[in-house]
Design goal:
alpha/beta, Rossmann fold, 11-stranded mixed sheet, 13 helices, binds benzoic acid, neurogenesis, Protein NDRG2, AB_hydrolase_fold, cytoplasm, NDRG
Length: 354
Amino acid sequence: MAELQEVQITEEKPLLPGQTPETHSVETPYGPITFTVYGTPKPKRPAILTYHDVGLNYKSCFQPLFQFADMQEIIQNFVRVHVDAPGMEEGAPVFPLGYQYPSLDQLADMIPCILQYLNFFTIIGVGVGAGAYVLSRYALTHPDTVEGLVLINIDPNAKGWMDWAAHKLTGLTSSIPEMILGHLFSQEELSGNSELIQKYRNIITHAPNLENIELYWNSYNNRRDLNFERGSDITLKCPVMLVVGDQAPHEDAVVECNSKLDPTQTSFLKMADSGGQPQLTQPGKLTEAFKYFLQGMGYMASSCMTRLSRSRTASLTSAASLDGNRSRSRTLSQSSESGPLPSGPPGHTMEVSC
Ligand code: BEZ
């Protein structure tokens, strides 16, 4: 691996005492990568590492979730590393003409440089769309360093010729920003033109780095199959929470992905009324599901979850029992009644502390 070199450090204004995010950039074999660290490393705990989708950066993808009030009780126990895909960081210059943007596999290969630089050993990955693919690829090649994955809107398949034909046809009538919006949001959401849609349409259409965004979009469309196969060696070994909105453009892909992963390690959360970006529209429900996911991994003792445990809004129940027959995957569905999921994936012994 090329020698790591810090090329830039910028500090933003502190949010709270002791919570100053620090933005770093390190060199990798595929060019520099920028990431922002929130919080301080906690001994014997993985870092939460996020990877955003096309058309977004870490803030526009994850800020509503990570700044959600109930989320604070969870994330204060973890250091967070928010990666910006190359050219997506705030103020990124436009890449020169002919610049070879990394493939999604190469983006995954940049992650070890980040972890080595920070001296972090294991992560819980949270990825959306293209970012979910990148983190899954990383988990396939570095399974010992990934303790868990939250994958929102993952499509593990390469585009088939039918998808390419549809993509080309859409490209005849739509601009790149509209195509990306069609990847991020459902048609119903786009035609409803809510404030959220107006905001993201505005962000993407007027992005000063739109050329860079198009390069990340091309890499996403040229992804190869992750080739997940249940029972084969090519599968995710860690606990996985798959998330998709029930109206999301990627619902079928996530359902298929669920069928290919180890059911004893995989939870599937289909969220009602959440559209294409549940982390933007339903941060409360996602926070609660994330809490159960971490509890299942032994990280959040329920006694630590004072405020969240009392919260009875937007709660989730398990549709499948976890404490006996684990031959099928867990499906989490929304309910008005609350009840925590039994915790502890098999073969996973982790500390329970807060
Ligand atoms: C965090 O606390 O991890 C966070 C805060 C703002 C934006 C994104 C993440």
